[in-house]
Amino acid sequence: MQNTKPTGYAPANDNHKLAYYIEGEGFPVFIFNGFTCVQANLKYAIEYLKNDFQVISWDYRGHGESMDKAGMHSSKANLDQFMADANSVFDHLQLKKAHIFGYSMGAQFSMQFAHDYPEKVSKIACLNGIYGKVFDQFLGTDLLGKILPGLPREIPWLNEAYKTLWKATHSIPFEIKFRIATIALLDRGLAKTEDVKPFLQSMSTLDGEFMLALAQEIHQHETYSFLSEIKNPSLIIASGSDLFATPAISEKVHRLLPDSELIIISKGTHNSNLEKPEQIFPEVLRFFKA
User: Fold this and answer.
1) DSSP H/E element including 164
2) Rounded CA gap, 119 and 115, in Å?
3) Please, what is the angle between helix 79-92 and helix 105-116, to 10°?
4) N or C: at which end does the chain have fewer Cβ atoms within 10 angstroms?
5) What is the DSSP letter of 93?
6) CB within 8 A of 121, min separation 6: which ones?
7) Among 120-124, 134-138, 225-229, 252-256, which stretch is predicted with the lowest mean pLDDT?
8) 2 in a structural domain
9) How many whole angstroms separate alpha carbon 261 and alpha carbon 263?
């Protein structure tokens, strides 16, 4: 059973408390989760890896159990802060080096962390990764990529409106949210309801202003310019039916990385981590153990 209570908290450079979770023993695997994701999204990754490795997952600021309001100003929703947060967890746990696993937005963060702290990274595995400018291709259209960067965040009443809209949107009944998710981001025939529910239900607890700022940041930031400098052995996994982080994105990353392996999982959506864990995580385990 997955540990859903934090093992402890690491202090960030601004003293924001970052919740972390540790399962298993051995060489460490450090996980970067996805945008708005909770520990339930990592259920199968941890389950498959914890018998051979010490698996360390954590909640980003503004996510899960890392929800100190003082550290959730929208100015903190930037890559520099999130990389510093990851390094704070590393240092708190006295990790010298670790394999890195990144899912979705976590793939973008994984590559940035490997670029910023190369001495701390061994191998890198990424699943359904976004690596920058992701909303330019969201669901096959560039509409969101055009709108998102221009949404203002300097007007107080608008920030309150973002928060209200986010909470209202994500407070609808679970079954409706589940049906909406299955339109493009989830295969109802493959994913178990009990695996998806904690993630969808947690969305209403997030801060809409902070999430908008983070979405703008991960869209504007990109890693392609330095991927050729990442020398670490890397495993890039894409899912054939992912309309968010399309296989073409992973193929591009594979071409840019000097030492990488590419696997494309047939039919899986952006949530293939919950749909097809038996195809994905044995490959991640194989790669890390090699």
Assistant:
1) helix 156-169
2) 9
3) 70
4) N
5) T
6) 97, 98, 99, 100, 113, 114, 232
7) 134-138
8) no
9) 7
Residue 99 lies in a domain: yes
Q: Could you list the residue range(s) of the whole structural domain that residue 33 is in?
A: 8-289
**What is the count of structural domains for the chain?**
1
Is 0.85 surpassed by the pTM of this model?
Answer: yes
Q: Alpha-carbon distance 202 to 264, whole Å?
A: 29
| Segment (H or E) for 46 | helix 43-49
Nearest to 106 by CA among 49, 177, 57: 57
| 237 within domain boundaries | yes
H helices present in 185-271, as ranges: 193-202, 208-220, 247-256
Instruction: Give the integer Cα–Cα distance in Å for 239 and 264.
Output: 5
CA distance 205 to 179: 20
Q: What is the four-CA torsion angle of 167, 10, 113, 68, rounded to 10 degrees?
A: 20
Indicate the residue type of 145: G
Return the structure tokens found at 58: 């954590």
Identify the CATH number of the domain in which residue 127 sits.
3.40.50.1820
DSSP-derived letter for residue 260 is E
- For residue 189, the number of C-alpha atoms closer than 13 Å in the C-beta half-sphere is 2
Find the mean pLDDT for residues 83-102: 98
- The end-to-end CA distance of the chain, in Å, is 27
pLDDT tens string 108-119: 999 999 999 999
Question: What mean pLDDT comes out for the span 104-110?
Answer: 97
Read off the DSSP letter of residue 12.
-
CA distance 258 to 56: 27
Q: pLDDT digits over 50-61, tens only?
A: 999 999 999 999
19 close to 63: Cβ distance less than 8 angstroms: no
What is the C-alpha separation between 58 and 88, in angstroms, rounded? 11
